[in-house]
From TrEMBL, chains A, B:
GO molecular function: FAD binding; methylenetetrahydrofolate reductase (NADPH) activity
SUPFAM superfamilies xref list: FAD-linked oxidoreductase
InterPro entries assigned to the protein according to its UniProt record, in alphabetical order: FAD-linked_oxidoreductase-like, Fadh2_euk, Mehydrof_redctse-like, MTHFR_C
UniProtKB keywords: Allosteric enzyme, FAD, Flavoprotein, NADP, Oxidoreductase, Phosphoprotein
Bias kind Low complexity: ranges: 18-29
Functional description taken from the UniProt entry: Catalyzes the conversion of 5,10-methylenetetrahydrofolate to 5-methyltetrahydrofolate, a cosubstrate for homocysteine remethylation to methionine. Represents a key regulatory connection between the folate and methionine cycles.
Organism per entry: Esox lucius (Northern pike)
Name of the gene encoding the protein in the UniProt record: MTHFR
Catalytic activity: (6S)-5-methyl-5,6,7,8-tetrahydrofolate + NADP(+) = (6R)-5,10-methylene-5,6,7,8-tetrahydrofolate + NADPH + H(+)
Domain MTHFR SAM-binding regulatory: 349-649
Keyword Phosphoprotein attributed: yes
Name of the protein this chain belongs to: Methylenetetrahydrofolate reductase (NADPH)
EC number annotated for this UniProt entry: 1.5.1.53
Subunit architecture: Homodimer.
Family note: Belongs to the methylenetetrahydrofolate reductase family.
Length: 658, 658
């Protein structure tokens, strides 16, 4: 739920003078936190900590789900996992968690480390994330170091685990961490209440515990030491979990207990997991699986059916506020279970038109320049050192400016496509500027290029066209074909409901608006004609035109930003999440031009004709953005481009006459 | 001109990296000045100093006018003069000036002092104001004290004059101020460039000067000492002024020279002024006036005709960027001259929907609670100690809260009507709550009450209904008749052009929006039914309901403000100048209830039935505000009130049945 209107019962709520000043204090504090005190808190979910979100959803009976992932083994695995976070994040998990792999240098800055994966999920994918941490065979200093680093990276939640001892026999270590309880205590002692802490529960008892009751007692100790909620080990029968919850409650454990759901996905993975967790697979499951053990699809289908049935029982019991899924870094089975349960939110309501970062420092961020619309991770990366969002309207000298540009090499910003695939899409050999135009056109139309390959991405857009942009497809294709190489656009919108499935965002009952926007590269010849044409469209159309050297022409008023997306909601101030800002455009310009070289030209040999063509465009074309301020009227930007071409045609005609 | 879009010529404006960071610096600085960094500067006029405004309008050939007033003799004269400022301010003067009356304790806090009148014009009437200051027979300390006080009160402009010496013979004083030049130097020395300084010019030479040329030399000295512009003594022939300007330019005076225009308004005032200024009235004027000297109307008409003719010549000369009028604190003649010249802007474009204060500290103010819409001077008074507008969203504990409530006694907030007139309008004797309802209804309908007197104002509204509110007249009258005593309302507006003559505001080419708003007092019985009805309108309608004790019911989300007026403009961020704010509503509540007693009940004898009736309403009624969030649909607030009455009728019916 994005929005919960606070309802008032019939009894008078006393709000005398002192009450009202109390309320005003909190207003003042929240406004101090934000650089823009006009920011309405559109979504309390954004600002609440995980345990508060759980409490609110438990109270409202709004079931949730969460997803567990493990860190990838390879760099390209990391790129894929980040894409998976984006896709699975769109289904609306309450949180994800990332396991701790002691063998994989889990606290390092490697792209495959648990720490970096969890940090990327929070900062770049906007997912509330829980980082696992195991403590056995670790010094306190090491653990404190990990926790400090996690805090610095914006992580707010820790799953505190003992971890597997080295060697087979378990020995207590003097002064070290011997149990997860020690870790929970250590976190609370060193970091007070900063982290939300999760601990593991074992519905059939920990394999090393002396008894089930003994294990329950340990769990109670972990909770008493400061844990906020429990996630259980996997199990195969709903009853197992429900009995466990009853037993927990009986000894005074009151925090949320989330069942760990493991949809069976294959014979091998089941065997492996069962071996690791020392669980026994019930007879009735083995009976089904054994006969089909060579048929992966059949096992998966059975696993989905079994998980759905068990989850239904759990949810219906009233004891389970949310479900936790062991995904094994796979998508299909878990998504299918969630879909069947009705928990997968196909079209999750967006609190803002762009994906909000989950970093606690950025939670108040409520406006971004439109330029990075298709490269939000790059924007987050380049503004990661800011304290304010935006930073003094994108350029206060007292704050750091936009960060370095060489973000092409960061794993969470890397293209999902290989060099080979990119060459197929963008052309093994370019023969003219025209062949570049065709690549753009194929991308827009989602049609195969001349070599028969679908163009799925461009350097400025790693994803196929957004549904919203699809509305403009035909117009876009028409102009791209003629060398107006569009990289960003939005249609005008005059008050659509905030619940609109394509353009809606924000709480229900509101209205969203947009000014039409078009951003493209084009030749200097075209720009000369365009500037002539734009005189007719004053002050209706705002423009910025710049080349790679920074030659800049604009009719922006006093370098002020132009709001191009805004929303009006019941009982709120106006929200304007997207602007065209003249100052940040100059930073974007550097990035947009560099992408020609870094992502496209470098695919080809030095001095090769293909490379020279891209380099020519990079050196000579202009980056143009246009805003049609008259949002209630029909978008005039296509007319502007038409007029430009008409003027150019006239020139040719005249030249030919001469 | 409210808005000047910065146009760009065809040559490339270079804006390399260093340029863009330069721009970003200034952006950062301006955002620091404002508590709301989202504030777009809608009107550079608001932030510029007087000499810059003059320069810009001179450059654009946009002629202006300014108005001179003298301080009133009596307290009621002060009340009237403030009303005149409001009326004449609506014609769009570039500035007004207030003369310095050494005999009237000009620097004191008396309501008739030059200082207080000029301060009121700036702070409460939103007029750019120039305070005269004479220096002869004054110590430097005294003068510095006056200037410091003026600065503290928000005055930014001084007309530096020598003043008339005491006694008939003029003697130089050792170390004192002997000439206006000394005062100009003193201001620049003590206050650097803080003030804009005006000095007087004498088109026919100062009466005490040795010669015309000698006088010009003195004028040059004053300008060289730091004066920014010149206003001339009155004259009767355009040629006199134009020769004077030529002579000034010839000796190197380059600053603006504004002609002082004196429309002849009567025989006596002309004689008096001529005597004081030692001017001679030209033969051709005396020939016209002498025969009609007993006929004031005829003289005034001649004066208007003469002034218009002379002003036309001046403006057409190209030497005159603006005209300065000696109004003698009268309206008719000057307004008529300005109308005929086309300089009186009948419907001046409003930069915001409310009148902006001209205090330099408040120039960035861009949002106010709607509650004070009809009492803007009270809002300004009660927030005069704030450093930020709004003050931490109307209630930061680190800033002062709303100022004292007893503003009823301040001359610039006093009703223009006498106690006697108020009694006639609001009833010499009230017999029931019903008779109060009738007063409200008569006010809304602009019709005479039962005693035959038109109700021109209410304690909450010192002016007749605003044109915008007039749109709602019939609905308002209907509900007032039944005890829904409305004190503030606005219709919903879904994107009218910003140039709309009734609801428009802000720069041209924009669109303005409103949510429907209704604020009223009503009985607790009505409120009980209303709350029942409002359940049907969740979350479409936001409400706050409070009684004098502060019993408060609301469905406001997290005590957040609700934007009820906003505008979308070319190349700007969204502007939202009016909000319904839950925190400030509690302060407004105190004021709104107190007005029943202070302005109405106190008209009647203690313990009189009339007084008891008003007191009963004050003690028992609730103050209600309603916002219809669904601005694109038909306003549902009338339906809400209808539903409330219907529910009440049902109750009566049921009671009667029983």
């Amino acid at each position: 739920m994005v929005n919960q209107v606070q309802t008032v019962d019939d009894t008078w709520r006393r709000c005398s003078k002192s009450d009202s000043s109390g309320a005003s204090n909190s207003g003042g504090e929240s406004s101090k936190e934000s650089s823009r005190s006009s920011t309405p808190v559109l979504d309390t979910d954004r600002t609440d900590r995980l345990r508060d979100k759980m409490r609110r959803r438990t109270e409202s009976g709004d079931h949730w789900f969460s997803l567990e992932f493990f860190p990838p083994r390879t760099a390209s695995g990391a790129v894929n996992l980040i894409s998976r976070f984006d896709r699975m994040g769109s289904g609306g998990p309450l949180f994800i968690d990332v396991t701790w792999h002691p063998a994989g240098d889990p606290g390092s800055d490697k792209e495959t480390s648990s720490m970096m994966i969890a940090s990327t999920a929070v900062n770049y994918c906007g997912l509330e994330s829980v980082l696992h941490l195991t403590c056995c065979n670790q010094t306190k200093e090491k653990i404190t170091g990990y926790l400090s680093k996690a805090k610095r990276l914006g992580l707010k939640n820790i799953m505190a685990l003992r971890g597997d001892p080295i060697g087979t026999d378990w020995e207590e270590e003097e002064g070290g961490f011997n149990y997860a309880t020690d870790l929970v205590k250590h976190i609370r002692c060193e970091f007070d209440d900063y982290f939300d802490i999760c601990v593991a529960g074992y519905p059939t008892g920990h394999p090393e515990a002396q008894s089930y009751d003994e294990d329950l007692k340990h769990l109670k100790e972990k909770v008493d030491a400061g844990a906020d909620f429990i996630i259980t080990q996997l199990f195969f029968r709903a009853d197992t979990f429900l009995k466990f919850v009853r037993d927990c409650r009986a000894i005074g454990i009151t925090c949320p207990i989330l069942p760990g759901i493991f949809p069976i996905q294959g014979y091998q993975s089941l065997r492996q997991l069962v071996k690791l967790s020392k669980l026994e697979v019930p007879e009735e499951i083995m009976r089904v699986i054994e006969p089909i053990k060579e048929n992966d699809a059949a096992i998966r289908n059975y696993g989905i059916e079994h998980a759905v049935g068990m989850c239904r029982m759990l949810l219906e019991s009233g004891e389970v506020p949310g479900l936790h899924f062991y995904t094994l870094n796979r998508e299909v089975a878990t998504m299918e279970v969630l879909r069947q349960l009705g928990l997968w939110i196909e079209d999750p309501r967006r609190p803002l038109p762009w994906a909000v970062s989950a970093h606690p420092k950025r939670k108040v961020e409520d406006v971004r320049p439109i330029f990075w619309a298709s490269r939000p991770k790059s924007y987050i990366y380049r503004t990661q050192d800011w304290d304010d969002f935006p930073n003094g309207r994108w350029g206060n000298s007292s704050s750091p400016a936009f960060g370095e540009l060489n973000d092409y090499y960061l794993f969470y910003l890397k293209s999902k496509s290989s060099k080979d695939a990119l060459l197929k899409m963008w052309g093994e050999e370019l023969t003219s500027e025209k062949s570049v135009y065709e690549v753009f056109t194929s991308y827009i139309m989602a049609e195969p290029n001349q070599a028969g390959h679908k163009v799925m991405c461009l350097p400025w857009n790693d994803e196929p066209l957004a549904p919203e942009t699809n509305l403009l497809k035909d117009e876009l294709a028409k102009v791209n074909r003629r060398g107006v190489l569009t990289i960003n656009s939005q249609p005008s919108i005059n008050g659509k409901p905030s619940s609109d499935s394509i353009v809606g965002w924000g709480p229900p009952g509101g209205y969203v608006f947009q000014k039409a926007y078009l951003e493209f590269f084009t030749s200097s010849e075209n720009v000369t004609a365009l500037l002539q044409v734009l005189k007719k469209y004053e002050p209706r159309v705002n423009y910025h035109i710049v080349n790679v050297q920074g030659q800049n022409t604009t009719n922006a008023h006093d370098m002020q930003p132009n709001a191009v997306t805004w929303g009006i909601f019941p009982g709120r101030e106006i929200v304007q999440p997207t602007v065209v800002d003249p100052v940040s455009f100059m930073y974007w310009k550097d990035e947009a031009f560099a992408l020609w070289i870094e992502q496209w030209a470098k695919l080809y040999e030095d001095e090769s004709p293909s490379r020279m063509i891209i380099k020519y465009i990079h050196d000579n074309y202009f980056l143009v953005n246009l805003v049609d301020n008259d949002f209630p009227l029909d978008n005039c930007l296509w007319q502007v481009i038409d007029d430009m071409f008409e003027l150019l045609n006239m020139h040719y005609f005249i030249e030919e006459m001469e």
